[in-house]
């Protein structure tokens, strides 16, 4: 039996559509809303050429956008790579380069962190920065067909390496 995190989430969302899935500060998002928001963003990600088992960096400050973004990445068939915007610029750059991604998702309000991301010159490396707060979450809210197997990547975590370079650990849906 193939179980993936995002398909299990969709089952829960169908059973509990009006229940709160996220409560963050003054905002409450129901399971149905979260499902539809992540579907919408997932369609956008797929439309931008992301394929099964691609790794997509997501750089966000603490917000509901992180949850929407990670679900959308999984629904698109890819794996997410969480990157803290507080990390040093060199570490962020290294992690993005290691992902071989052509797109990163961001939600950053802090001016210093925004400057840090801008200074990475992503466009010169043919990497598109997509701001999660700019997405129209009311478009393409229908479910995406799942293209993953449970042995596919779900997310990647970088840890401090003994060589001084971060090392990526690949986590599959099976491992959740």
Automatic annotation (TrEMBL):
GO biological processes: amino acid activation for nonribosomal peptide biosynthetic process; secondary metabolite biosynthetic process
Superkingdom of origin: Eukaryota
InterPro entries in the record: AMP-binding_CS (IPR020845), AMP-dep_synth/lig_dom (IPR000873)
Ranges for domain AMP-dependent synthetase/ligase: 9-176
Pfam families: AMP-binding
GO CC annotations on file: cytoplasm
Residues in the signal sequence: none
GO MF annotation list: phosphopantetheine binding
Name this protein carries in UniProt: Acetyl-CoA synthetase-like protein
């Amino acid at each position: 039996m193939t179980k993936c995190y995002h398909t299990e989430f969709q089952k829960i969302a169908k059973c509990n559509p009006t229940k709160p899935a996220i409560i963050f500060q003054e905002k409450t998002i129901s399971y149905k809303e979260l499902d539809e928001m992540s579907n919408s963003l997932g369609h956008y990600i797929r439309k931008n050429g992301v394929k099964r088992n691609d790794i997509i960096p997501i750089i966000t400050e603490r917000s509901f956008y992180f949850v929407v973004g990670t679900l959308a990445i999984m629904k698109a068939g890819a794996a997410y790579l969480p990157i803290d915007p507080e990390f040093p610029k060199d570490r962020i750059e290294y992690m993005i380069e290691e992902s071989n991604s052509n797109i990163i998702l961001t939600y950053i309000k802090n001016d210093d962190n925004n400057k840090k991301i801008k200074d990475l010159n992503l466009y010169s490396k043919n990497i598109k920065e997509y701001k999660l707060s700019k997405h129209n979450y009311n478009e393409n809210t229908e479910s995406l067909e799942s293209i993953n197997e449970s042995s596919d990547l779900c997310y990647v975590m970088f840890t401090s390496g003994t060589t001084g370079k971060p090392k990526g650990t690949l986590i599959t849906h099976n491992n959740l």
